[in-house]
Amino acid sequence: MKSPHQKKPGEVVRIAQEHITVLFEQAQKMFSEHPELSNRHVKLARKIAMRFKIKLPKQYQRMFCKHCYAFFMPSKTCRVRTEKGKIVYYCFTCKKYTRWMYK
């Protein structure tokens, strides 16, 4: 009997990863003109990753708020501070903190 959660073919996963990369690049480019559109790109990229069960690379995980999924642009949508081995992002949209270890 087949498992209900089978692996996706490699070609499909590769295309999905490329699409995620393109969406994050577009989010960065479009932010100055349309910040709400860059938030939409982040949400679409997350949906694709969830649908194909792909883990987002760390570089992309740190580009958006994990609470409201708003695109992070330092000093425009978030405040960045360092404290005790952590980078702390404060989101202006949802007023919550996101902490990442660095070491």
The general outline is globular
Q: How far do the termini sit from each other?
A: 46 Å
Q: Give a short account of the largest sheet.
A: 3 strands, antiparallel
Beta-strand content estimate = 15-25%
Give the tally of structural domains.
Answer: 1
Low-confidence stretches: none
Gyration radius, in Å: 16 Å
Task: Determine the number of helices (DSSP H or I, runs of at least 4 residues).
Answer: 3
Give me the secondary-structure category.
alpha+beta
* Share in helix: 40-55%
With strands numbered from the N-terminus, the spatial order across the biggest sheet is 1-2-3
Order of secondary-structure elements: HHHEEE
**Tally of strands:** 3
Mean pLDDT: 93
Please write out the topology.
Layout lengths: L9 H21 L4 H17 L6 H4 L16 E6 L2 E6 L5 E5 L2
Antiparallel strand pairs: 1-2, 2-3
Description of the structure:
The chain is an alpha+beta fold and 103 residues long. Helices cover 41% and strands 17% of the residues. The chain is built from three helices and three strands, in the order αααβββ. Strands 1-2-3 form a three-stranded antiparallel β-sheet, with no helix packed on it. α1 runs antiparallel to α2.
Keywords:
three-stranded antiparallel sheet, 103 residues, 3 helices, globular, 3 strands, alpha+beta
Task: Sum this structure up briefly.
By secondary structure, this protein is α+β, with helices and mostly antiparallel strands. The chain is built from three helices and three strands; from the N terminus they run H-H-H-E-E-E. Strands 1-2-3 form a three-stranded antiparallel beta sheet, with no helix packed on it.
